[in-house]
Amino acid sequence: MIQRNPHIANLASGYLFPEISKRRAAFAKENPGAKIISLGIGNTTEPLTPHVQAGLAGEVSRLGTKEGYSGYGDETGLTELRAKIASVLYGGIVAPEEVFISDGAKCDIGRLQYLFGERVAVAVQDPAYPVYVDGSVMIGAAGAAKRDGSGYEGIVYMPCTAENGFFPDLSLVPANALVYFCSPNNPTGAVATKAQLEALVKKANEKGSIIVFDSAYSAFIRDPALPKSIFEIEGARTCAIEINSFSKPIGFTGVRLGWSIVPKELLFADGTPVMKDWTRLMTTIFNGASNIAQRGGLASLDETGLAETRALTDYYLGNAKLIADALAGPNFARAGVEIFGGDNAPYVWARFPGRKSWDIFDRILRECHVVCTPGAGFGPAGESFIRFSSFGHREQVEEACARLAKLQLG
Ligand code: PL4
Q: Are 212 and 116 in contact (CB under 8 A)?
């Protein structure tokens, strides 16, 4: 018989989000009358906007005609969409051929890990979106091995805490490593400033490391001083890859569409352009994003589409404000709860001093019938924190907030 892949066997426990779903399902089974509200997984809830929907529908109709039908497309994406992303979202600071269209950011993270292989060292912000660590462990990066408590030997965890403003100590950045960096951050909701990203880029260039900059939530940035892309920073073209997604700005979590930016100047140690190998990989193990999804994405980038994106992301930011206000209530203040994020990001990050995050998760589920995400699931430094997602229908978020306001933490 074939031996089990030791790298997959090396993974600690279940992936965070299925584990939350399991606990929710168990609670629902024991309490069939409970009206559970999810502020847990960052999954969009609002319908597709009209202009984007028309873009999708137009392509479906076109595909239904003899003249308009097309099969496989270019694995790297529609030329028109690549050009539009480069000009509209990046103002021309990246070239269309540096934009690679995909089926989403999570899938690109997995493929990038495959690109760099098992010998690469890995550093992550702690806490972080679990795919960076779990995906790295799966390919055996840095010989990652389970350790007691939480986390893995071999992965460099760079704590991002309230004390350091959720920006890591850059002396921890290893040499010749992949450095996963997410801004606006999931789960902390923190957004790195220009000065912070300048320091990060400088450090990565000094160390010969590559930043994988996950900007999946850039459409939620409202403060014009905050960078939306790592390529706004001088020097980033020699040390960074960016991944982004249509999931959150236009509700494509189920439709599936994303992109990566790999600059021409980014090189491997032997001088090979990373872009060359990324193109080879994408054209070999990826068959292109859905043509329908790409037309929807394209619609979102014209004037009407951008206005719809703004309104949709404003809606979720409005939810985030309601959640942050509820968590600022007297019952939480008495327990010393501190609140972060939620203003330029769709996540509110709350610290419950002296408590375990899975305990708080269970308590909020049992007493409020609200699902949230325990901070410990994002890494060791997430312990004692809870992440609240603002993706929800307004009336449900309001109801969840009313229930949270009654929680007695005592
Ligand atoms: C639940 C920082 C959510 N089953 O939709 P994609 O693949 O383009 O983007 C996924 C993604 C990429 N980067 C960051 C993200 O936060 C996400 C989505 N994260 C969350 O609640 O943290 C959805 C998670 C999903 C998953 O496992 O990704």
A: no
